[in-house]
Structure to design on (175 residues):
């Protein structure tokens, strides 16, 4: 089964690979009752298996300390059970990887960018997000990119095993 994956490997000043940013997702709508096994398998293959394989390969190739940043998603939304399950699995995988890779000097963190307007939102969704998000409106790709740059820098060398929201408060909507 061919799974399209997107990952970015960051190269440090020495020319060595220093960071892996895993930013891909497979998403199909479907609730618990109407999602079939093939949909679940597609989500797990792309979102979980793909991420873990990329992380494995990065760790095999890195020479020294480094950083891994994995994009997750939340809070879970009705009608997206397989997507939510796969992204939840990533959040826990980040914790396990952080414990395992910390002694090697590799930090592992998750980023939840929240609703990010990359052109996929319609006006109704854009208005809903603006109305219900404390900082108003959806984020821009640059918002998450700034956090990625920080987490993959020496300044974040003591931050590991975290899931950080860059969602303008979107995750607080139910509070």
């Amino acid at each position: 089964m061919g799974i399209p994956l997107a990952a970015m490997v960051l190269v440090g000043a020495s020319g060595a690979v220093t960071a892996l940013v895993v930013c891909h997702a497979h998403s199909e709508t479907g609730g618990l009752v109407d999602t079939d096994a093939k949909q679940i398998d597609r989500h797990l293959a792309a979102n979980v298996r793909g991420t873990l394989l990329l992380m494995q390969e990065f760790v095999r190739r890195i020479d020294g300390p480094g950083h891994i940043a994995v994009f997750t998603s939340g809070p879970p939304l009705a009608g997206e059970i397989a997507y939510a399950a796969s992204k939840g699995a990533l959040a826990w995988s980040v914790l396990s990887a952080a414990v395992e890779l910390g002694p090697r000097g590799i930090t592992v963190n998750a980023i939840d960018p929240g609703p990010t307007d990359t052109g996929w939102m319609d006006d109704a969704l854009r208005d809903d997000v603006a109305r219900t998000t404390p900082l108003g409106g959806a984020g821009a790709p640059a918002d998450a990119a700034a956090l990625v740059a920080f987490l993959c820098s020496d300044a974040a060398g003591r931050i590991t095993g975290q899931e950080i929201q860059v969602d303008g408060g979107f995750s607080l909507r139910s509070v």
Observations:
- Confidence is low (pLDDT under 50) at residues 1-6.
- Residues 37-61 form the longest helix (25 residues).
